[in-house]
Amino acid sequence: MPDAAIELVDVNKWYGTFHVLKDINLTVGSGEKVVICGPSGSGKSTVVRCINQLEKHQNGTIRIDGTELTDDPKSTAAIRSEVGMVFQQFNLFPHLTVLENLTLGPIKARGLSRKEAEERARHYLDRVHIPDQADKRPTQLSGGQQQRVAIARSLCMEPRVLLFDEPTSALDPEMISEVLDVMVELAQEGMTMVVVTHEMGFARKVADNMIFMDEGEIVEQGRPEHFFTNPGSARCRKFLSQILQH
Amino acid sequence: MKKTLIPLSLLLLVAGCSSSQTWGWYVVNPTTSTGWTNVKFLISGMGATIQISLIAAFLSIAIGLIVAFPALSEKRGWRLVNRVYVEFVRSIPLLPMLFWVFYGLPIVFQSMGMNIPIDPFWGAVITLAISDSAFTAEIYRAGIQSIAKGQSEAAQTVGLNSIQTMRYVILPQAIRRILPPLANQFIYIVKMSAFASVIGMQELTRRANELVVTEYRPLEIYTLLIFEYLILVLIISAGVRWLERRMGSDERG
Description:
The complex is a heterodimer of chains A (about 250) and B (about 250).
Chain A: E1 4-15, E2 18-29, E3 33-37, H1 44-51, E4 59-64, E5 67-68, H2 73-80, E6 83-86, H3 98-108, H4 114-127, H5 143-155, E7 161-165, H6 173-188, E8 192-196, H7 200-206, E9 209-214, E10 217-222, H8 224-229, H9 234-244
Parallel strand pairs in A: 3-8, 3-9, 6-7, 7-8
Antiparallel strand pairs in A: 1-2, 1-4, 4-5, 9-10
Helix pairs in contact in A: 3-4, 3-5, 4-5, 5-6
Chain B: H1 2-17, H2 33-43, H3 46-71, H4 76-91, H5 94-111, H6 120-145, H7 149-157, H8 162-192, H9 204-215, H10 218-252
């Protein structure tokens, strides 16, 4: 395996007395695609949110590119600009145009000139197949378009790793595939990705490693051909049968 | 504005011209020389009312912002500072606070070895500003907190620090929700500035009081006074509505 882009060692997290993450161990190699699935409340989103420190873990170690995440705000900011994130609810900035959404981070956090940032933004808008929407407001776009803008916004930071937190769950069915297509292309270009999703077709196509979580634990992990055909645990078998039924 | 004023004036005029002897509009009839002198005397308080209101509103907007920020802190101690200020200040009725500032505060200053006199103008301005700042602080806090958490999370994931997040993502969105209620607070200040009359400030209400004493025509004079405030407030309301329309169209645009 190539050197690890993300490494979680014995990570634990509590909300008050509720133990949301229990001894999570996970290694994501550079260029690797990991898909996390599991029932709601299983802690899968929390894992992703801990990786970019939107939430703090209480014990255990998280390393990004070999650098350990600490409470130091400077290291947190440095890590965050290496780790892109795509949210379920897109979270585009409604008061800015699409282009401004894409250039805000590169200009303010990366110190690019406006011209460089706009060139980069147009390049990535092209890559997510919406080159013509740069001057619109996010609210004028369809859900699928908004999510692709959100992906482009993350890409504009040229992150080492891209995290997806249920990126298609808030979309109308007919818009899911346009987002998944973009994600498949990214995967094929070698982006390191951690994706929380129930889109098992996508998972089969791109995942190097499948992870099933339940009640804050990683119950099962393995290569997709193995994972889908012969899961070891009863809980995972039951979950897969429920979501693959139709 | 015309739609409200014209029927009201007509109604009062009709009442005044009827056979009943209870109205005596001559005291403020601008076509007679004494009437015109009286009207000019009443209107001459307008400048002071506007000055007090504008300066108090400006100070309240600034103090409110300072008071609001601790409320957004993750530290409980800071949030407590905000809570104590807001709860304390907004529980004090305006009139007692005015007396305390005007008669009491100079004594406090004196005991600290400072000789800072407080005239009626600044007494009124300080009282109105502090009293109103508790409300403006709440308006800021509510406006900022109404912006969904996902916005600041998204800002963080594109590398912005907390100050940049506030400046480029949260405040530009919150300002649209903050400005209209803030402008409404201005109306409140204009009306409450009438209290300045009791510490001798020569503003609209004080002028009316003084004229009543010499002319003994309270009904007509106070009616005119109410119209003076009505006109002021209607002008501000029109401004608020203009502002809301502009903000609204920005959000859609």
